[in-house]
Amino acid sequence: EPEVTQTPSHQVTQMGQEVILRCVPISNHLYFYWYRQILGQKVEFLVSFYNNEISEKSEIFDDQFSVERPDGSNFTLKIRSTKLEDSAMYFCASSLAGRRDGYTFGSGTRLTVV
Amino acid sequence: SQQGEEDPQALSIQEGENATMNCSYKTSINNLQWYRQNSGRGLVHLILIRSNEREKHSGRLRVTLDTSKKSSSLLITASRAADTASYFCATGNYGQNFVFGPGTRLSVLP
Known about the structure:
heterodimer; A: 114 residues; mainly beta; B: 6-stranded mixed beta sheet
């Protein structure tokens, strides 16, 4: 069964550093998403991406964050100048038909900012 | 906010019993989805039910949707220890991305 693949599974970074979280969505999916889950808290929407541009973003997704689809297969989330409160599980998801369809989530990248 | 809220927050049952979790939401929706998350792992899509559907089945899972009450339920029949996980409902509507509730933590005891 097709999967969304995320790398790395765990990333530790120092406060102030930049990190790039990588995702390979399902190949024929058109809609891409990033969500995050701070330990013990809700899964929060960050950003959606369609047709090579951001279609929606939440209040969390400020100038510190950016997304990119550098080629036909990868979808990345860049966090600049990381803060302690950025420590969370980051989930990538993809969907064939957007909100009319179920999302397929990756297994997540656990980001720890120290 | 259309955010779903699951109820109960935690549920503990014996293996073989049925588990029922509920989700309530506030605004009209296009569809509602249920996801499972094992501890420290990713989200697994279980079922999507559309606003014009009232009930859906998938294996041991049964989901109902009552749009008049703005609520949904997830029933897991003949539960197994492997069903131990957190279960989330996510509500979707045109113009808005899926919003997840805080989840129900299900523990199935052997």
